[in-house]
Amino acid sequence: MNILKRICLFIVCTLFVTFPIFAVDFQADYDTQYAVSPNGTTIVTQNVTLTNKQSNLYPKQYTVTIDSDQIKNVIAYDSKGVITPKVTQKDKKTDIVVEFNDKVVGIDKKLLFSIRYENGAIANKIGNIWEVRIPGITNDPTLGEYTVSLQTPTTFPQNAYMTPLPASGVRWTKNQLVNGGINAAYGEYQSYVVDILYPLDNELLTPAMYTIAIPPDTTYQSITISAIDPKPMEIKKDGDGNWIASFTLQPSQHVDVKAQLLIKTYIKPLSQSQKPLPDMNLYLKEQPYWETNNPQIKEYAKKYTTPRAIYDFVINTLSYNYGQISTTPIRKGAVAALSNPTNSLCTEFTDLFIAIARAAGIPAREVVGYAYTNDSRLRPLLVGSDILHAWPEYYDTESSRWIPIDPTWGFTTGGVNYFDIFDFNHIAFVIHGQSSELPYPAGSFKQGSIPQKNVSVRFAESTTIVTKDAYKTIFDLPKQITAGRVFKGTVQVDNIGGKQIEQIEVKIVGSPYAFKAQKTEQKPPPFGSITIPVSIPIPILLHKSQGIIDVSVNGEQSSFQYEILPTYWVYAAIGCMALAFLLVLWTFIRKR
What we know:
Elements: E1 10-12, E2 18-20, E3 26-36, E4 42-52, E5 59-66, E6 71-78, E7 81-83, E8 86-90, E9 93-99, E10 110-119, E11 123-126, E12 129-134, E13 143-151, E14 159-163, H1 174-178, E15 182-186, E16 189-201, E17 208-214, E18 221-229, E19 234-237, E20 243-249, E21 254-266, H2 295-303, H3 307-317, H4 334-339, H5 346-359, E22 364-371, E23 389-396, E24 401-404, H6 407-412, E25 426-432, E26 455-459, E27 471-476, E28 480-482, E29 486-495, E30 503-511, E31 515-522, E32 529-537, E33 545-553, E34 556-565, H7 568-591
Parallel strand pairs: 3-13, 28-34
Antiparallel strand pairs: 1-2, 1-5, 3-4, 4-10, 5-9, 6-7, 6-10, 8-9, 11-12, 12-15, 14-15, 16-21, 16-26, 17-20, 18-21, 19-20, 22-23, 22-25, 23-24, 27-29, 29-32, 30-31, 30-33, 33-34
Helix pairs in contact: 2-5, 3-5
């Protein structure tokens, strides 16, 4: 709300002749109170003090401009009584004009008045989360003190984040509001249902394997695959943690892979999300669109050496081109973004941050995904594409975590802090770190082109999220074996629960023929598997026997029983030897 973006003041001199005056003739001090009701309607009360800077002038009229058209039920009054305000709305702005009843003349004399109204744009319930956004103010020369207080109902969930925090504990100050508005959210997590269609075509004359990228678990989101048809052969993780599902297509076969995901997004990092980088250099390399060896990029990397400094530089350098958001986006890269800074979209904000960060020795990567917004002017999306948004992450060595930031929305919201605090509205589809282009995200995976809309996102009830781990033990072992041979096969544990499991620990014990094996897998993805080979030498036996393979998967027990047949060739050998002995004996007796 640019309270003083447009101010109209008229005064009367001691002879009561009306003259227009300059802004330096008065100073306006504001005490603004925001009271949010349980249904989200916000009552805004602005107590304003106008102080005369001239001895023979007084204010007659004052205009407040609010950057919202959701203003209604405006009332105003001064020390002499009620004022009937004149309210006009145009271009999503509201002008409130008040003509004062009171006339205060004299240097340093003060005129006190109040404006009260309902604003429907301050608090909004989005899925499970209440968002509160109080816009900043312009640094107008007539503005003196400016304080803001906020009151939310007890029915709101607990506060997830608030930026900035009030300077005095309960009130925000002018300096805070000039540098950007107040952004707050209430709730633990956001829940989404995401439907994705992956069209696959095998145009070859032989069977071929195709892969797709399914949105993965990250530091701030958890994924449950509630349905996928057809089921993949397997899902593996790549080096960036993406979930890569594999399918085999027959010659000239077309398959539409349909997946439904239940997604939770969080503000606080999920447990066990800390992970040291095995090779930091992989995230410092030059890649297409991240020209770290470019001289201009190198110079900026010497000047801006921290993630925050690079974030601020990107916001202050690039300008978002709203004219391109309804067209098919063309990725330009970091160097091209610098050469044409006013023609930028989220890809340019992201690529420029990554290129400078990598050149400065800070591991950085790109996330491509979906971001929810109810105000496309403040938080714009690439409307002409299923791939609606891109943002960077940098690796924080102190916490051993990837930290997401959004310089695009930091710019378009006029200074909302998307560096220190993220939000519940970003869903990661794929992560580009070791490659700047692969894997292709949902909606554009097919050779990088953008087909028909294949992604649908809606809010979900939190109770629909399935959280139980589920796995299946598969014994690929023979049911019978002849004694004297080696009993061979595998034990495979499949994650069939539709969600990533924090850890699977598999223990195998064989009896009565000794065998032990153990394997621990961290964060196996849905439809991922663990395979352990089994090899047990079986001794020579002259009788039937049985063996048992006991398997423990995270403490849950299962067994496989196999039959051991006697070593028949031993019987045959003994019989042959006995027969040969009898023949020798008989021959000897006959000769005697």
